[in-house]
Amino acid sequence: MISGGINAHLAELMLLPDVALRVGPRSILFLTLGLGAYDAPTSLRPGLYAGLSVPVKRLTAFIHYGLHFELGCYGLTVLQLDPRLDFSLTYAVSQAVSVGVGVASQSSGDANGTLEGRGTVSVGL
Question: Is residue 50 in a domain?
Fold first, then answer.
C-alpha cells in the first residue's frame, strides 16, 4: 500500500489488457477506440477510450476522451470510472526521435478534478 497526504490513494496491481482498434490511414487522420492505456500516464489508470489523431507533416495532434479506472479514491478500495480528456502534440525531430507536450484533465469522485501537464521524448530504432 502506498499512501500520502490527507487523501490517501491505494496502489494495487490491476491486470487489464491493452487493445486498440485504429480506423483510417495513419498518414492523414485516424480514430482509435480502445481498452487499456494509450500513453504512460494512463498505464496506471486504464479504461475505455476514443481518440482522434491528426498528423500534419512532422507534427501530430492527439485528443483522447475516456472513462478511466480510479482505484482507492480517498483511501477506499472502490473501483470507479472517471472521465478523462487528454490533448497532446508530438514533433518528429527525425525518423527515430520525437518530442512532445500534453495536458490532461480528469475528474475523480467528489474532487473537482486534476490537471496534468507532461513533456515526452521518444527514441526508436
Answer: yes
Which residues sit opposite 66 in a β-bridge? 49, 84
71 falls within a domain: yes
Per residue of the chain (125 residues), what is the pLDDT tens digit?
A: 333 343 344 445 566 778 999 999 888 899 999 998 888 778 777 889 999 999 999 999 999 999 887 655 444 445 677 888 999 999 999 999 999 999 999 876 655 678 889 999 999 88
Which residue segment(s) compose the domain that 57 sits in? 19-123
Count: domains in the chain: 1
Contacts of 29 (CB under 8 A, 6+ apart): 52, 53, 54, 55
